[in-house]
Automatic annotation (TrEMBL):
Localization per record: Golgi apparatus membrane
Topology with respect to the bilayer: Multi-pass membrane protein
InterPro entries hit by this protein: Got1 (IPR045176), Vesicle_transpt_Got1/SFT2 (IPR007305)
Keywords attached to this entry: Golgi apparatus, Membrane, Transmembrane, Transmembrane helix
Protein name, per record: Vesicle transport protein GOT1A isoform X2
Provenance organism: Betta splendens (Siamese fighting fish)
Gene name linked to the record: golt1a
Length: 133
C-alpha cells in the first residue's frame, strides 16, 4: 500500500480548490481573476503531489514540449487577463499533454461505473478490440 505524505494531502486539497476555482471561473463567463487563481492553485497542487523535480520533468520532456508550451502559454494568457483565448490555448495544451492517459482513464471509468448506456458503448469499443488478440 502506498502511503500518502502530509504534503501530498495538502496538494490534493490545493488542487481540488484549483479545479473548483477553474470551474467557477468558467461558469461566471470566464472571469479572469478566478481562472488565474484556479490555474495557480492547480499547478501548485500538482507540484505538492508529485514534487518539484518530477513536475519539471513532466512538463519539459522533449516529446511533450508542444503540449507544455501551449498549456503554460495558456496559463500566462489567463494571467494577462485574456481569459477566453488563454483557456482555449490551455485546453489544447492539456489535451496534448495527457492524450496518452485518456484511453486508460476512459477504460477505468467505464469499467468502474455500470451505467446502462455507457456499458453499451464500452462493449461496442473495447470488447471487439480484446477479441482480436
Amino acid at each position: 500500500m502506498v502511503e500518502i505524505t502530509e504534503l501530498q494531502k495538502i496538494g490534493i486539497g490545493v488542487m481540488g480548490f484549483g479545479l473548483f476555482f477553474l470551474l467557477f471561473g468558467v461558469l461566471l463567463y470566464f472571469d479572469s481573476v478566478l481562472l488565474a487563481f484556479g490555474n495557480i492553485l492547480f499547478l501548485s497542487g500538482l507540484t505538492f503531489i508529485i514534487g518539484f523535480r518530477r513536475t519539471a520533468k513532466f512538463f519539459f520532456q522533449k516529446h511533450k514540449f508542444r503540449g507544455s508550451f501551449f498549456f503554460l502559454g495558456g496559463v500566462s494568457l489567463v494571467l494577462c487577463r485574456w481569459s477566453i483565448i488563454g483557456m482555449l490555448v490551455e485546453s489544447y495544451g492539456f489535451i496534448l499533454l495527457f492524450r496518452s492517459f485518456f484511453p486508460m482513464a476512459f477504460k477505468f471509468v467505464l469499467s468502474a461505473v455500470n451505467i446502462p448506456y455507457l456499458s453499451a458503448v464500452r462493449m461496442m469499443f473495447f470488447s471487439s478490440s480484446s477479441s482480436r488478440v
